[in-house]
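A note from the maintainers: we've had questions about how concatenated examples are separated. There is no special marker in the raw files; a new sequence line simply starts the next protein. For clarity in this README we add a label.
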Amino acid sequence: MTRRPITLAVLLLAFGLALAGCGGDDDASGDTTAATTTASGGGSTTLTGSVGPGFDISLDGTDGLTAGDYTLVVDDQSSAHNFHLTGPGGVDVSTDVSADGEESFELTLEPGEYRFLCDPHASSMNGTFTVG
């Protein structure tokens, strides 16, 4: 199958992006920050989500998004959290709360507002982004 090399390439890209983002602050106050990074256009652009190990959740690659096809790669770093994305067009994908590790989702984003959150901690671990 040709999916395995593509999946491997996406995972390697996500790993490289994760390494580039290392060294941020480790604020364990429970506050979260909505993601702000640059990406543009549809067509297999990768969005990179992260949840845990503390009470942090983020999604990179959401600035300037237009409708189209995207790959969401989530680095779930805690078995106490999950990453749940919902939005227009029936987008509703999530990782399992009791699991950790990396998981990928193929998405078609339509114009509108999307929300990502940790289901067990939705009031403090959440963010939004808009697709134009």
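[label: protein 2]
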Amino acid sequence: MRMVKGITLIFVFLFLGEFIAEVTPLPIPGNIIGMILLFISLVFNFIKLEEIAPAGDLLLEHLILYFIPVSIGIISYKELLRDEFVSFSVIVVGGFLILYFLISKMIDLLVCNLEKKGS
């Protein structure tokens, strides 16, 4: 029964996020809005983590299944990817380097803040 309640809560936030995305001019996808709302609910203890943990664990356990449609899409566009390999590679490597730099700076800031609080 806990699994049904957890999945129901996750889907309620998903649909709530989709609804907000439809009725507002926000340029954010509905699933992201739903995830933010779920996160806020967990932080402020409107929902207990124990209520959605079994459903979340199940979804994470089968996460690889969500990548099958993407893989099939990549295979079906292999000619396009072959033609645009250089630009695609530059985008992927550049995006990785930018993300790597930003994450390292965020971690550096967090460590500095923790050291200041500990002093």
